Amino acid sequence: MCANVKNKYGVNVLEKDVEGYLKRQCSKHGMLCYKFNSPGRTGVPDRIIVFAGMIFFVECKAPAGKLTPNQVANHAELFKQGVTVCVVKSFFEVDTLLSGIKKLLNA
What we know:
The chain is of the alpha+beta class and 107 residues long. It has one domain (15-104): Trna Endonuclease, Chain: A, domain 1 (3-Layer(aba) Sandwich). The chain contains three helices and four strands; from the N terminus they run H-E-E-E-H-E-H. It has helices at 15-28, 69-80, 91-104, and strands at 32-35, 47-51, 54-60, 84-88. A four-stranded mixed β-sheet has the order 1-2-3-4. Strand 2 (47-51) and strand 3 (54-60) form a beta hairpin. The N and C termini lie far apart (33 Å).
């Protein structure tokens, strides 16, 4: 497990750190990265990435974070509708996701 992963300053990486990194990297790559809230519904992904006419839902977690049962159910529901839902738990996974999106779309 990836418990107690520290950043370059020796501080534990939190979910908000991963989410902030995702937002900054999306901006660097010319991608839109919106915060997603759905009033009255829990377990929806944290972010929506829009790039080159495609939409990707992204759930951010701390390195040792786990999906809640509501998140698992919502991700499955989105997947059944043909929507891409990704979970990222580290800066490396964010970089891998964004490079994969660009490669997929030949951008």
